[in-house]
Design a protein that fits this description.
This protein is of the alpha/beta class. It has helices at about 5-40, 75-90, 95-100, 110-120, 145-155, 170-180, 195-205, 220-230, 245-250, 275-280, 280-290, 305-310, 320-325, 330-335, and strands at about 55, 60, 125-130, 135, 140, 160, 185-190, 210-215, 235-240, 255-260, 295, 315-320. It has 14 helices and twelve strands. Its EC number is 4.1.1.48. It catalyses: 1-(2-carboxyphenylamino)-1-deoxy-D-ribulose 5-phosphate + H(+) = (1S,2R)-1-C-(indol-3-yl)glycerol 3-phosphate + CO2 + H2O.
Length: about 350
Amino acid sequence: MCIHSFPLIQAKLDENAENALKVKEWEVGMFQNEMAVSQRIKIRRRSPTEPPTHYVGPFEFQLQNGGNTPRNILEEIVWNKDVEVTKMKERMPLSVLKKAIENAPPTRDFIGALKAAHFGTKLTGLIAEVKKASPSKGVLRENFDPIAKAYEKGGAACLSVLTDEKYFQGGFKNLEAIRKAGIQCPLLCKEFIIDAWQIYYARTKGADAVLLIAAILPDLDIKHMTKICKMLNMAALVEVHDEREMDRVLEIEGIELIDINNRNLETFKVDINNTKKLLEGERGQVIHQKDIIVVGESALFTPDDIAYVQDAGIKAVLVGESIVKQDEPGKAISGLFGKDISL
C-alpha cells in the first residue's frame, strides 16, 4: 500500500467515527421521542427524519421516517432549541460551567421570596416577566431594560427573564445584565430546557430558578433536573397546562413549585378557568398535603382575574404581557392587583 494513501484512509476513518456519533445521537433522539409518547407527551424532542448515513460495507444508506415538519409552534421551538444547545455545549463543556459555578455568588431564595410576598400582602406573590416579544404577540416592548428595577420597586417578589433569542428576542445576556444591575429579586430563567446542561449555564448567568415544562420533558428528566436544581441551590418551577401533566408532576417526589399555564403552548389559546379545573378535588388535596406552591400564569389582566385564581388556590402569579406593555410598569402592577403591593 502506498504511504500517500494513509491520510485518505485516516480521513475516511474520521468521517466514519463522526457519522457513527451522529447515528448514536439520532438513536438517542428517537428513544426520547418513544419515551415521550409512552407518557402521552405530544411534543417530539427532535425531528425523527433525516438521520445520518449508515455504512454497510461499501454501501451507505439513510433510514427514512415521515414527519420532519413541526406539528405546532412549541415543537418547532424545541427542535430549534435542540440544535442551539448542541452547539453551545460544544463551545462550553459542562466541566467549564461547573468550574465557573464554584466562584459564582450564592443564589437568592426564590421560594422564600414568594412566601414572604404572599404573607406580607395577603395577595398572590408576583413574578414579573421581563419580556420583549412572543410568537403570538410579536414585539411587546422595544426598550425593556429599565423595567426590571420598576418591577422590583412596584412590588414584584421575583423576576422572570426570557432567555430564548429566536422566538422571544431574549437572551442570557439580559439575565446577566439584570443581575449585575443590582436587582435584589430572585431571578427565574424562563427557557425551553431540554438538557441539564442548560441549568448549569443558567446558574453561571445569575439565575436563582429555572422553568421546567412538563409538555416537553418526560418524568425522568423532570426528576433528574429537579435534583440538579437542589444541588445548585436553585428552585425548579415545573409548568403544567392540563390534567394529564398535573397528575404526572404530582407523582414526582421533591416538587415544590408548580406553574399552571392557562395558555395552551400548542395552540397559544388561553383560558383562565384552566387554573380552577386543575386545582379541584383530589389534586388540590395532594398539593396541600405536599405543601406545593402553585403559580398561575396567562390570562391575568385585572384584579378580578387575580382574585379568581387566588380563590382557586394560587399563591403566586407570573405576569408579563399585561404589565410589560404599559408605559409605567409600577402603576401597571398596582392596577393589576387593585392596590399598591410594594412592601
